[in-house]
Structures are given as C-alpha cells and as structure tokens.
TrEMBL record:
Name of the molecule in the record: RidA family protein
Domain of life: Bacteria
GO molecular function: deaminase activity
Entry's family note: Belongs to the RutC family.
Gene3D superfamilies according to UniProt: RutC-like
NCBIfam families, per database record: Rid family detoxifying hydrolase (TIGR00004)
CDD domains hit by this protein: YjgF_YER057c_UK114_family
Gene Ontology cellular-component terms listed: cytosol
A Pfam short name: Ribonuc_L-PSP
UniProt cross-references to PANTHER family, sorted A to Z: 2-IMINOBUTANOATE/2-IMINOPROPANOATE DEAMINASE RIDA, 2-IMINOBUTANOATE_2-IMINOPROPANOATE DEAMINASE
Length: 128
C-alpha cells in the first residue's frame, strides 16, 4: 500500500529519503527547499525567490502524487529568521485559497544547503 512518489519537476532527493510517500489517500511530502530542479542550485536573490521555488517544488510533487497544493491539509514551515514570516504569509496567499491548511511555522538554527526556508506537509487525496 505504500507508494514512493518521484518527479523530475522537483529537486531530486539529496539524502536517504523520497520526495513523497503515499499511503492510502494520504501523501507525506518531504521537506522542500528553494532548489531549482534543473540545476539543483538555490534560487538566488531575496528570500521571496526561494519561497516561490519551495511552493513550485511542493506543487510538482503534489501533482506527481495525483493532487495539488489545495490538497495539503498540514503544512510545516521552517525559517532561519522569523522576520520573514510576513513574506511567507503574503506569498502563501498566492498559492492557496480558503480553506487554508493547518500550519506550523518554526524558527530553526540552520537548514540544508544553508538556505533560509524549508517546507514539508501532508496531503489528503479524495480518491485512491
């Protein structure tokens, strides 16, 4: 019943994990950072560029699993600087519509590749 989800439209795993794992109607999305899939380099510029790339990466994995960002029921956001929380909210509103997923946002000391934002989540699909 466990199905590994993988797509070339999101960054390839840089460790011992899958991009996502589907179990029944639930899809567990691994953390995504602002890597550009084609180059495996972080999006440059302001944090907003990396936040947009994270949502693009999550969207690609959701689509590979048969869903969309709108199917995310729980989103976890990790920031190295909570002063960017308002920026995350502003950009998130461009990718999600109500009802919004449950969410947590936490500050962490550091993230992979020395980036400043990472997100993971849980998606619930209406059909199997």
């Amino acid at each position: 019943m466990r199905q590994v989800i993988s797509t070339e439209n999101a960054p390839q795993a840089i460790g011992t994990y899958s991009q996502a794992v589907r179990f029944g109607n639930t899809v567990y999305l691994s953390g995504q950072i602002g890597l550009i899939p084609a180059t495996m380099e972080l999006a440059e510029g302001e944090i907003s560029e990396r936040i947009h790339q994270v949502f693009k990466n999550l969207s690609a994995v959701c689509e590979a699993a048969g869903g969309s960002l709108q199917d995310i029921v729980k989103l976890n956001i990790f920031l190295t600087d909570m002063s960017h929380f308002a920026t995350v909210n502003e950009i998130m509103a461009q990718y999600f519509k109500e009802p919004y997923p449950a969410r947590a946002a936490v500050a962490v000391k550091e993230l992979p590749k020395n980036t400043d934002v990472e997100m993971d989540g849980v998606m619930a699909l209406s059909s199997y």
